[in-house]
UniProtKB/TrEMBL annotation:
Belongs to the metallo-dependent hydrolases superfamily. TatD-type hydrolase family. CDD domains: TatD_DNAse. Keywords: Hydrolase, Metal-binding, Nuclease. It comes from the Eukaryota. The keyword Lipid metabolism does not apply. GO terms for cellular component: cytosol. The lineage of its organism: Eukaryota, Viridiplantae, Streptophyta, Embryophyta, Tracheophyta. A divalent metal cation 1 binds at E99, D210. InterPro entries: Metal_Hydrolase (IPR032466), TatD-like (IPR001130), TatD-type_Hydrolase (IPR050891). Gene3D superfamilies: Metal-dependent hydrolases (3.20.20.140). One of its GO terms (molecular function) is 3'-5'-DNA exonuclease activity. A divalent metal cation 2 binds at H136, H161. This is Putative exodeoxyribonuclease I.
Length: 303
């Protein structure tokens, strides 16, 4: 979509540079580009190498796990992921294994057993590389938590992103040390969703856009808390000064922050954003960002 392609049709010029400019102008500090397959992880690393503020993940999404077996040699496929991750770590770009996990909402893409097998396999990737994990859990909390429990000593930390589960699911995840809950527009659709978000401690939460997906729509329960808006136009009437209607962008992480603050009744949005940023640094940038994140928090704590 950031190349202007929608369902195989070119609707406008590639505009990733414009999208990134808008993100930096909106106060976004760093962006993690997600890999969802071996090929996509290669592409994510190539994108991350174009800017010092871009980083990426290496891994296989649950709905794509058939690629291990379709490659003809699952172990060779795994080794290719491992060598890509190592290359990216050396370049200072790969900060997590993922996106991996379980998605029982879309079993037509990949059966349950294959998803489970290769979710478990990717803990090996995290164990060898000492990377944290960027995790996906949809309609699969019991199996997901069972696999995480079995492998909890094989990864340093993780975030279960795009969380849409129940408070029960949430509590199961929070029972794992160093597991955070990732919130985006999909997490803020219903009043039930907002009640769950309200109950997640800010110290165990991260926010994201998952762009180009998961935007906050006008029909979402959280829309009333949104204060920051950008002009938008349909993709057919592309204008680089506007965001594309229906396509999410990194700058819109600000809206996720506003909804989280609103439903938690937090007035100091700045302090909340620093806490969430600190959580993200703790997991994905422990070496070079802890001191910067701690410095940011000093002002908040003293006030």
């Amino acid at each position: 979509m950031f190349k202007g392609m929608y369902h195989g049709k070119q609707c406008h010029v590639a505009d990733i540079a414009t999208v990134l400019s808008r993100a930096w102008a909106a106060g976004v500090d760093r962006i993690i580009v997600t890999g969802g397959s071996l090929e996509e992880s290669r592409e994510a690393l190539a994108i991350a190498e174009t800017d010092g503020r871009l980083f990426c993940t290496v891994g296989v999404h649950p709905t794509r796990c058939k690629e291990f077996e379709e490659s003809g040699d699952p172990e060779k496929h795994f080794q290719a992921l491992l060598s890509l991750a190592k290359e990216g770590i050396q370049k200072g770009k790969v900060v997590a294994v993922g996106e991996c996990g379980l998605d029982y909402d879309r079993l037509h893409f990949c059966p349950e057993e294959i998803q489970k097998k290769y979710f478990e396999k990717q803990f090996e990737l995290a164990h060898i590389t000492k990377l944290p994990m960027f995790l996906h859990m949809r309609e699969a909390a019991a199996d997901f938590c069972e696999i995480v429990e079995k492998n909890k000593d094989r990864f340093t930390a993780g975030v279960t992103h795009s969380f849409t589960g129940s408070m029960d699911d949430c509590n199961k995840l929070l029972s794992f040390d160093n597991m955070y809950i990732g919130i985006n527009g999909c997490s803020l659709k219903t009043t039930e969703n907002l009640d769950v978000v309200k109950g997640i401690p800010a110290e165990r939460m991260m926010i994201e856009t998952d762009s180009p997906y998961c935007e906050i729509k006008n029909t979402h329960a959280g829309i009333g808390f949104v204060k920051s808006t950008w002009p938008s136009k349909k993709k057919e009437k592309y204008d680089q000064e506007c965001i594309v209607k229906g396509r999410n962008e990194p700058c819109l992480v600000r809206q996720v922050l506003e909804v989280v603050a609103g439903c938690k009744g937090i007035n100091d949005v700045g302090a909340l954003s620093k806490t969430l940023y600190h959580n993200t640094c703790r997991v994905f940038f422990p070496h070079d960002l802890d001191s910067a994140a701690d410095a940011l928090l000093v002002g908040v704590n003293s006030s």
